[in-house]
Amino acid sequence: xxxxxxxxxxxxxxxxxxxxxxxxxxxxxxxxxxxxxxxxxxxxxxxxxxxxxxxxxxxxxxxxxxxxxxxxxxxxxxxxxxxxxxxxxxxxxxxxxxxxxxxxxxxxxxxxxxxxxxxxxxxxxxxxxxxxxxxxxxxxxxxxxxxxxxxxxxxxxxxxxxxxxxxxxxxxxxxxxxxxxxxxxxxxxxxxxxxxxxxxxxxxxxxxxxxxxxxxxxxxxxxxxxxxxxxxxxxxxxxxxxxxxxxxxxxxxxxxxxxxxxxxxxxxxxxx
Amino acid sequence: xxxxxxxxxxxxxxxxxxxxxxxxxxxxxxxxxxxxxxxxxxxxxxxxxxxxxxxxxxxxxxxxxxxxxxxxxxxxxxxxxxxxxxxxxxxxxxxxxxxxxxxxxxxxxxxxxxxxxxxxxxxxxxxxxxxxxxxxxxxxxxxxxxxxxxxxxxxxxxxxxxxxxx
Lengths: 272, 166
Known about the structure:
- The structure holds 2 protein chains of 2 kinds.
- By secondary structure, chain A is of the alpha+beta class.
- Chain A has 4 helices and 12 strands.
- Chain B has 6 helices and no strands.
- At the A-B interface, helix 2 and helix 3 of A face helix 1, helix 3 and helix 4 of B.
């Protein structure tokens, strides 16, 4: 046998066979390290740890260097995205506010089904500091007539004074030319409310009328307005003995500085 | 001295393989530095050296990382032995044998490893192993092999490498 004379080949084959056997015996998997393994492990692990840490350090350093350029681009992209998101956020915030306003209108509408409601947006206003006269985007085409009441979900805004085919002018109740017949909800005392130059709503009441701070004021049934529309709360009462009257300041429930959507209302049976 | 130096090289290689060399991965494939070592010595000194270095490095890996003792040892040893058979027929100063035998060694080793894995019931797809491990690793090894071979050859030509033990 020539093969057996090759010592190296024989040794190799023998070792190979031994290894096959050890593979077969250990192939099932070990959970506990063998004695030899744990000796090597104890010796090698600290060295490995140091080298592995070194590797990590190199990797991180080089990564930072290479990422420098991409970081700049990333930074710009992120800034752009922030601007975009801010814009979007602003829009969404406005939509949420609009939603709240519209919901208030809707709630009022559902609570008072006796009226016909025509929704309108404000298109322009008297170039003063306050909404005294403003225009809305609905007119005779939509069934609006002069002297219709204009409200929001919070309360009375004013009345229509002029109607075009697709626009109307509204005089708000805080205009000094406007006057509204009112009634104190608690005592049914009547009076007249007019706007003033400094945009306060002032009511003149008889001296003997019973009115205190905090009373609710609504429209009376003998005015051009629909009756029972909420105007606001009494803010202060001032007795004017010589004129035999009481000067009542009223805080309107409507915020005239921030009007955007209104309803024009009229009695449903009048339309028919 | 020879045994000491080679033993040290095997040991250092084993530590570096599991730590620093992990960062040499390109597209997830790590060159097999053990194969480069085995091939280099198999070309320079023949089957005996090739087989021994393969056995030692393989067993070290098996004991420390492998599940079955001998899988790597067997595969590396036979690879070293087979490559070493060419020892008398190659021109040792050329790069070419190193390139060719590195690719060959990767294929022999990976196939052997695959066979053992197959028989120990590890489900590995052959085409997947071929396309994703064997071929890229063979190319990678063929590039790095000659460089390291040149360094090892220069070391092997040193005077002290002629002394077996001291």
